[in-house]
Recover the amino acids of this structure.
């Protein structure tokens, strides 16, 4: 029996449990990842060489966990980070603990790569990495299942990939990236939200079909534009472009130019600063999976406060000169396994 129309009207004070379309409005609700049992990625050699630091290529093999001391400390850092956010009245969701070391897989610590919130819609990435195919299902379904019960939320699950997955077929790598264009592939961390415009990049894990797919599934009124970045090892844009508040961003001068950013109408009036702080190699704990630009991967609590790694003092001081207030949090062991504050979270509600 059809419901009378009056029962279908959403009250004006109704707050959806998902609503975010930028990177800086006050954070109200967030997912924070988990590092337990995380393993080095197991991907074909050409993908590892395209995206991972050379010193650790030989560690990238099946079921090879990161050192237990690193994982123990990373778990503590994530718990502490979640506690900092909770104290700021942010609602926290955590995923399930998964035995990646038994079932195969990478980690539950980096949900930004696998989930993207645009407006009231939560979009599951079409991972190109084979070791990440089941990551969202295994660790994050407990959260997504709850959101699916909320009629104000749209959950877009990743399309099923045919077997065998054609994404790595050598003969099709015409683009120069480590994946071909045979099916949609994208990591959510190759995109950033600037209101109704989502800016992203092509990378070793994000292809043209992936961008076309994303354009179809974002809510009506949103568009997806591609920024011209210059890093041949590109995988994720969140240590390349960092919006701090509406109208102010910083960028990584080794990967993108101000001219390329200005081509996008949404940024034409923005104040932009090349990051003057240099990345310095870090050996202890090692950066097994990222470049040393990982310090740029911060999380905004609002248009003033940003969470910064506890030892990145020079960077934090520069952010202060731009009017920001850094909140320090130790995160070097999470950095070690592949990401920082932006990578380890998915903002669910940002609202004034
Ligand atoms: O090496 O710049 C940072 C972001 C990882 N999700 C890098 C990657």
């Amino acid at each position: 029996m059809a419901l009378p129309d009056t029962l279908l009207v959403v009250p004006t004070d109704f707050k959806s449990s998902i609503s975010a379309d930028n990177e800086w409005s006050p954070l109200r609700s967030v997912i924070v990842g988990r590092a337990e049992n995380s393993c080095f990625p197991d991907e074909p050699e050409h993908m590892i060489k395209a995206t991972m630091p050379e010193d650790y290529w030989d560690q990238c093999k099946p079921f090879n966990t990161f050192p237990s001391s690193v994982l123990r400390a990373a778990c503590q850092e994530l718990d502490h980070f979640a506690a900092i956010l909770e104290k700021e009245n942010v609602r926290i969701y955590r995923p399930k603990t998964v035995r990646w070391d038994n079932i195969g897989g990478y980690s539950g610590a980096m949900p930004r790569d696998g989930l993207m919130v645009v407006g009231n819609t939560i979009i599951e990435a079409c991972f190109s990495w084979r070791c990440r195919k089941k990551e969202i299902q295994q660790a994050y379904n407990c959260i997504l299942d709850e959101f699916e019960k909320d009629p104000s939320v749209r959950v877009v699950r990743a399309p099923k990939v045919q077997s065998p997955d054609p994404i790595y077929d050598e003969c099709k790598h015409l683009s120069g990236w480590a994946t071909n264009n045979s099916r949609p592939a994208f990591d959510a961390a190759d995109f950033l939200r600037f209101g109704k415009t989502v800016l992203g990049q092509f990378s070793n894990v994000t292809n043209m079909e992936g961008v076309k797919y994303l354009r179809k599934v974002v809510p009506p009124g949103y568009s997806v534009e591609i920024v011209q970045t210059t890093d041949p090892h590109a995988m994720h844009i969140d240590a390349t472009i960092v919006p701090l508040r509406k109208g102010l961003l910083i960028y990584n001068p080794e990967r993108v130019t101000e001219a390329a950013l200005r081509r996008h109408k949404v940024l034409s009036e923005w104040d932009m600063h090349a990051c003057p702080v240099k990345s310095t190699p870090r050996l202890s704990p090692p950066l097994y999976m990222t470049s040393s630009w990982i310090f740029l991967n911060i999380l905004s609590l609002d248009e003033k406060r940003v969470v910064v790694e506890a030892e990145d003092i020079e960077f934090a001081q520069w952010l202060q000169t731009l009017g920001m207030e850094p909140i320090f949090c130790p995160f070097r062991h999470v950095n070690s396994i592949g990401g920082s504050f932006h990578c380890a979270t998915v903002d669910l509600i940002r609202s004034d």
Remarks:
- The longest helix spans residues 68-87.
